Amino acid sequence: MRILITGGAGFIGSALIRHLILDTGHQVLNLDKLTYAGNLESLSSIDHDSRYEFVQADIVDQPTVNAILARFKPEAIMHLAAESHVDRSIDGPADFIQTNIVGTYSLLEATRAYWQTLAEPQKRTFRFHHISTDEVYGDLHGADDLFTETTAYAPSSPYSASKAASDHLVRAWQRTYGLPVLLTNCSNNYGPFHFPEKLIPLVILNALAGKPLPVYGDGQQVRDWLYVEDHARALLKVVTEGAVGETYNIGGHNEQKNIDVVRSICALLEELAPHKPDGVEHYADLITFVKDRPGHDLRYAIDAGKIERELGWTPRETFETGLRKTVQWYLENLLWCRRVQDGSYQGERLGSLDNKESIA
Q1: What is the C-alpha separation between 325 and 145, in angstroms, rounded?
Q2: 96/136 Cα distance (integer angstroms)
Q3: Alpha-carbon distance 184 to 21, whole Å?
């Protein structure tokens, strides 16, 4: 298949592209605006492959997207381009409205115009796969409750509200115009090449530098953690085998309290990086509790039974195996981390991640 991926230089998008090029025979066009979170160095292992092409463009720019679709003639579009950092959305929601809502609308309109030019057999097999988040569902209250594909939407942050809006647009374009769409909502991803402002890489790198490990509130917030390479396999399953109009929740079956995630990282670093910064006796001594994030959801947890029953996907990694692989990767790729932290991956200094850091 010819697959166009938006946001392919981001964390999940780059994992998906690496999977498609290294493990399948599909052809990929990566359309990415290259905001701060887009890093082409995450694709260095495949960027010279003849089945891979990169185009720098903004999904809001509909004429440019029209031209790309007409030239590349994709058989599927996998839409991952999004602003995705909750703290950033609280500080500046406008970018999230523009990219996640207006951008999705523009991409849907460009896709619809392209899809209508296809012959009937190609129309029937074409797919538009929208990749979203479990945060659109809001907060779980019962200790045993799980998000299902029919859970009502109740987003809490500007980020999750903008993703909820984009989900609704995608479903409306199928209902109104017949566009063959698929949706997936995933839990928290982690793994190699994760931008260092996110929780797990931030804790790893702060610990190695002897900096505080900030934890929101009391750290009792629960998240379901999904190893990014497991997610990439699931996404390919959905776009190639999923039923049109269906939604599939993708989770790792790995519920963890934020404070336990931080402590687990500290324990792994004790083993894998025993030579600590000056003045640090134990990595866990760096844990620092700070004021909670506004509107912070307490618990997310995914019921991923549907994708297992219907498509045969289950995660390969437990949280323990995935976290160990992740910590080892960061220890072995500190140059990649430093280039993100100092901005040189973009050819300019951003300085302290644009003064934004995510915490647990």
Answers
A1: 29
A2: 14
A3: 21
pLDDT, tens only, 44-73:
999 999 999 999 999 999 999 999 999 999
Stretch 68-84: mean pLDDT, rounded? Answer: 97
Residues with a catalytic annotation lie at 134-135, 159
Provide the whole-model pTM.
Answer: 0.93
Relative orientation angle of helices 158-177 and 104-115, to the nearest 10 degrees: 20
Domains located in the chain, CATH noted: 2-190+225-255+298-317 (3.40.50.720)
Residue 217 falls in which region: left (phi positive, over 0), alpha (psi -120 to 50) or beta? left
Query: What is the rounded distance in angstroms from the CA atom of residue 52 to the CA atom of residue 48?
Result: 7
64 touches 41 (CB < 8 A): no
Q: Are 221 and 297 in contact (CB under 8 A)?
A: yes
Whether residue 38 contacts residue 57, with contact meaning beta carbons closer than 8 Å, is answered with: no
Q: What Cα–Cα distance (Å) separates residue 241 from each residue in 127, 170, 238?
A: 10, 19, 5
Confidence label for 347 from pLDDT (cuts 50, 70 and 90): low
d(CA 86, CA 277): 30
